[in-house]
Structure formats: C-alpha cells, structure tokens
Amino acid sequence: MSQRPALRFPSDFVWGAATAAYQIEGAVAEDGRRPSVWDRYSHTEGKVANGDNGDIACDHYHRVEADVQLMADLGLQTYRFSIAWPRVIPDGRTRANQAGLAWYHRLIDLLLEHGITPCPTLFHWDLPEGLEEIGGFRNRDTVSWFADYAALMAQEFGDRVTMWSTFNEPWCYAYLGHGSGAHAPGLRDPKAAVTVAHHQLLAHGLAVQAMRSERDGLALGIVINPSNIVSEGVEADEAEIRMIDGIHNRWWFDATLTGAYPADVIERYGELADAVQPGDVETIAQPLDWMGINYYFDILVQQAADRGLHMPEYPAVVGTEPSPMRAVHTDMGWPITPAGFTELLVRLRDDYPNLPPIYITENGAAYDDPVVDGRCHDERRIDYLDLHLRALLDAIEEGVDVRGYYQWSLLDNFEWALGYDKRFGIVHVDFDTLERTPRDSALWYRDVIARGGLPEHSD
Ligand code: GCO
C-alpha cells in the first residue's frame, strides 16, 4: 500500500466548481428563452443517448437558491457557470429578454451573498437557433452579434462580475459540432469546421474589445481544452501527431497569444481556412487577463491501416486513428493520465512567454457509483481528483502560474451526446426526483478547500 503525502496549495489559490447552462438549467421554454442548437439537436432522433435532452436537466433554473446554498455548504470560493445566450437574447441578436437577465442577476446576487465569486462563460455551445438559421458561426455576421451580446453582459453584470471567459472549448464546438457531427449543430463539413474554429476566435477578440469598452477592470479570458497527443501501440506518423497537436492545441494558443495561426496548420488546411481575412488574427490576439484550461486526459492515437482520413474532428490529418483504450479509464472511456496534466502546463508555460495566469476551469471524472442509504462512496472519483491535484501542484512547483481550480462538475448533468448516463458530479442527482446527494467526493473536496490542500491518500 503506497502513501501519497499530505500537500498544501498556495494560500491565495482559489477553489471552485463548474457547470454549464444547457447541462443543468432546464426551463428551456420558460420566461422567454428560445431554442438553442442543442435544443434542436437533442430533440433530433438518434443524436443523444437514450433520447435524453436538456428540457429539465437538473432543473437548476427553479432550484438556484438551494444549489447555491449547497455550493456554500461545500465551501466553494468561486463558481464557474455559463450564461445561456438564448435566455438573455432569445434570437441571438435583436432584443434583450429582461426575464432572462433577471434570472442571472438572481444567481449572481445569491453567489455574492454567500461570498462565492461568479465566473461566467459567455458561450458554452448553446448558440441561439435564430443565429444557426442564418449560418451560425459559419456566418461572419454572427461574430458581430456575439460581440454585441458580450457588451450587453458587461453592461448588465459588469458592476458585480469581474472574471469572465468568452468561449468554452471552441475546438469542441467547431470540430465535434461541424467536423464529426457528434455534437450540435451536427454537421460533417471540414470547411465549415475550420470556418467556425476561426470565427469563434474572431468573436472572442471582438468581444474582449467590446467588454473593455463597456467596463474598466474586467478580468477577461478564454477556456481551451488542450491535450497531449500521444502515440501508443502501433506508432503513428510523427508529422500527423504534430498536425493533431496543431489543430487541437496550437491553433488556439498561437492565435490568442501570438497573433498568428500555426503556419503548418494553415498550410495543411489550404482553402479550408479561406475564412481567415487579413487583420483577423491581430484582432483575436487581445491581451488576456487569464487563461482557462480544461484538462481531462492525453489523446491517445495510433497509425491507421491506410493513409486515409480517419478522424473528421481533425480535418486533413491522414493515416491516424484513436488508439483503443489500453490504460485504466473512467466511465467516459478516457484514460487517466495525470502526468500529462503537469507536462502540458509546463509546455504551455515554456511555449508562450506571454501566457497569462492560468485557472484550471475543468477537471473531473465520470463514474456511476450508486447512492445507498443516502451515501455515495465514489472512491474512484476521489482518487482521480487527488492524482490530478497532485499533478497540478507539481506544475505549480515547477513555476507555472496557476491561480485556481474548478472541479467538473458540481452536479451530475446532461453530458451532451451521452445524455445523463455519464455522471461527473461530486453531487449525485436523481433525475427522477431531482434530489441532490453530496457524494463522498463532495465531502472530500470540502475538506480540501478548508485545508487548502490534500490529505494523505493511500493507493
Ligand atoms: C467539456 C465541456 C463540459 C463537459 C465535460 C465532460 O469540457 O467538454 O466543457 O461541458 O461536460 O468536459 O465532458
């Protein structure tokens, strides 16, 4: 039995948890909210496991007081959530919805009353259907509508909310939503995927400019989900590994932090990247106050049997395919690779000299441990979180400037195309009764926050 020693984090390190609007709110047609692309996608036959959708989700919309009390009981110092664009501007562009704005005012007031710092994300994939109908982020006009939305959020909430991120995991929305079609809006069109990858970043740059014009003193960032690309088993072609790294990682960090897309990716993309216009990437590279990093796992790939295209979520990458899960993995089938977390953060620090302070905006694991007599013994989730917090501290001790950690997720919730089967919550949700039950991991995390670090842990 090996022992992991007790460890402490920097005294000013902040501890939180994260969620997203479509995954927890429900009330999709209430108080003026209009459909998003995920409403349409989840109601399209065959797109989401078990025919699940976000119509009710965790019904957070009607339980916000109790849920914020739950956050306070766990000692959360900060809470990352997303604002549903279709709840505050129902068609995405013409008019604000006062009832939708009022609900977020209530959430923010409750958080502040409990001493919990709000950290909203403006876009967590729930694009108003009214904008998808005019091409969504494939249409360059949507970039301007997003900047208008961002300015309204800064105007409306910027007096009490300082820390904002513009986009959550733009790679997912671009390439799962328009490359593989595994996410909303469900397209399989490589040029659309690359166009959306670009237009989201352009929208990010314009939104940062717009928010700073509305309010001084905002702390603005973007949330990226980098992964190490690791070849295992049958060795993959190093050039293709590098290209996946370019699409998954460097595209986002190079553009936002250096003002240029990676030349190798632009070359490989050719006309797929026609949407990029002169001056765009300079607009994208607005100075940032912080960088959000969502980390879950290393991406494991191997050489495919032929030189064809095997991964539509990585357009133009040939002869390479996902590697079957050989490592121990979570219920998502994701490998558990904490060393990759340290490695990735140190790499980002070394590759981007102007990298702003980092917040880990998501990290967590899906396991479906049952609730028995009001308790849920989720030792595997605790072990995952413990391992990754230790890996995070290793990066901090190597000099990476990490200021905080948001566990994914506070509640079991709608896990996109996988529906409600995949449970990431430190709090269990019974989706029949909507009863919340803190798991052992919630109690463990509460103690981590109170202690400012990790207890001894036995393997
Ligand atoms: C993401 C999203 C979350 C997911 C979580 C588990 O990172 O994919 O931000 O909405 O639910 O990561 O997949």
Q: Which CATH architecture?
A: Alpha-Beta Barrel
Overall tally of domains: 1
Total beta strands: 17
- Largest sheet data: 8 strands, parallel, barrel
> Strand arrangement, largest sheet?
3-4-5-6-7-9-12-13
Unique bound compounds: D-gluconic acid
Quick tags:
3-stranded mixed beta sheet; 15 helices; single chain; binds D-gluconic acid; 8-stranded parallel beta barrel; 459 residues; alpha/beta; TIM Barrel
Write up what this structure looks like.
By secondary structure, this protein is of the alpha/beta class. It has one domain: Alpha-Beta Barrel (TIM Barrel). It is 38% helix and 15% strand. The protein contains 15 helices and 17 strands. The protein has helices at 21-24, 37-42, 64-73, 85-88, 98-113, 129-132, 141-157, 170-178, 190-214, 238-258, 263-269, 280-284, 338-351, 379-397, 440-451, and strands at residues 3-4, 7-8, 14-18, 78-82, 117-123, 163-168, 219-224, 229-231, 290-294, 299-303, 320-322, 358-362, 402-408, 427-429, 436-438, 453-454, 457-458. It has an eight-stranded parallel beta barrel with strand order 3-4-5-6-7-9-12-13, surrounded by five helices. The mean pLDDT is 97. Residues 20, 23, 168-169, 172, 225, 294, 362, 408, 415, 424 line the site of D-gluconic acid.
